Amino acid sequence: MATNVKFIGLLFIIILTSCKMEKEKKYRWIATVSAPQEYPSEVYWGDLIADDYHSSFSSIFGTSYAGWGNEGKSLGEGIQVDIPHTLEFTYLSLVEKKFYTGKWQLDKAKITALFDEGFMDYQINKRETFYSFIIGLAPKGRVALWVYAAGVQKEVGFFQAHDTIITQKMAYENAQYMLNEGYPERTLQRAFGIEPAVKEKIAKYGRPDPNVYSDLYRERYSWKPVVLLPDGGVWKSSTIHLLNGELETLEGNELLKNDFQTRAIPFYFVAFWKSKTAESYAVRTDPFDEQEIINAFKKLGNKENIELIFKVAPNNESCRIFVKNKIEEIELKKAIITCEGPFEFKI
Q1: Taking Cα atoms as reference points, which of 257, 223, 253, 228 lies closest to residue 240?
Q2: What are the residues whose beta carbons fall under 8 Å from the beta carbon of 184, sequence distance 6 or more?
Q3: pLDDT of 164-201, one tens digit each?
Q4: What is the rounded distance in angstroms from the CA atom of residue 228 to the CA atom of residue 301?
Q5: How far is the C-alpha of 333 from the C-alpha of 321, rounded, in Å?
Q6: For the segment 66-94, what is each residue's pLDDT rounded down to a tens digit?
Q7: Neighbours of 321 (CB within 10 A)
């Protein structure tokens, strides 16, 4: 009887210790801001809130136009803290000349599971995890939240802010410049970091429909990439950027499986392979023609799995791209395709 009591007591202590360790688990992360180059935003104030930590944003972050889903300016190197549970943000959409604000509860359980699961980094043959949150500020008050690590980015929240009025008298001192007359126009004119191709596209076609960031870019299809190589070629890895800001890397077991997955439409893709003579090559689309690939996916629809096929020529110097399902095949002729190699480095 005494032995049983001791065993039960020991078991109880182990359970309590395990619960305490789980409760005290911390994660190292930083936070940054993203906005489309077509719709730059000005950070007014924000907070990514954990039980023991606030990652705060203010006018010191300035204008954001790194590109949808891309990392912008961040402060600090990250410390061991809890996973955040709340996001609040206020920003100025410069093109619309409107302030938006909102406060949202995050799916902490989902985010924690992603951090705990992590992913396999085959470059170092080790499991890694996420280390950054990217807050996306889009027109019409759309706000996205992604978790990021090198080669991997996943959307973990998408929210709707509401417009608000902020006057120069109301604004805190360091943000009053945003209310100066003509500030949005001047800032858009001097946004030197916006890519020339984006400026040309805006000049020719205007800015995209502001709803694309919440609707069109986030539409998902069941698809997978297929790289058809010359005889003896071996596909080694791929990186895929998606229109909804997500990013994934296929290599190792993930590349061997290469299952159909429900993904957004890609806008950038790169594949590396070895030829039968062990030379290293790559093909990249930088980028797809957005309208062409969207139209192709829409035409094939969601009823059948879709293959995005890269057919590399026997000389490894050119490539054709198709999207197909069981019924139809469409060639993408407008994508900017670059074939590179052989490289000196081996993959």
Answers
A1: 223
A2: 92, 94, 95, 97
A3: 999 999 999 999 999 999 999 999 998 888 999 899 99
A4: 23
A5: 7
A6: 999 999 888 767 789 999 999 999 999 99
A7: 22
- Extract the tokens encoding 317: 């110097």
Q: Six-digit token pair at 292? A: 């062409």
CA distance 63 to 36: 11
CA-to-CA separations, 289 to 260, 295, 299, 313, 335, in angstroms, rounded: 23, 10, 16, 21, 5
> DSSP letters along 214-227, please?
TTGGG-EEEEEEEE
CB-CB contact of 136 with 144 (8 Å): yes
State the CB neighbour count (10 A cutoff) for residue 68.
24
Residue 45 near residue 103, CB atoms below 8 Å:
no
Rounded CA-CA distance 168/295 in Å is 45
Residue pair 160/87 in contact (Cβ under 8 Å)? The answer is: no
How far is it, in rounded angstroms, from Cα 341 to Cα 270? 13
Q: Which residue has the tokens 């719709």?
A: 39
Buried b (16+ CB within 10 A) or exposed e, 50-65: beebebebebebebbb
Question: How much is the pTM?
Answer: 0.91
DSSP H helices, 215-320, are 252-257, 290-300
Tokens 């990021």 belong to 148
Name the CA dihedral angle for 257, 340, 330, 303, rounded to a multiple of 10 degrees.
Answer: 20
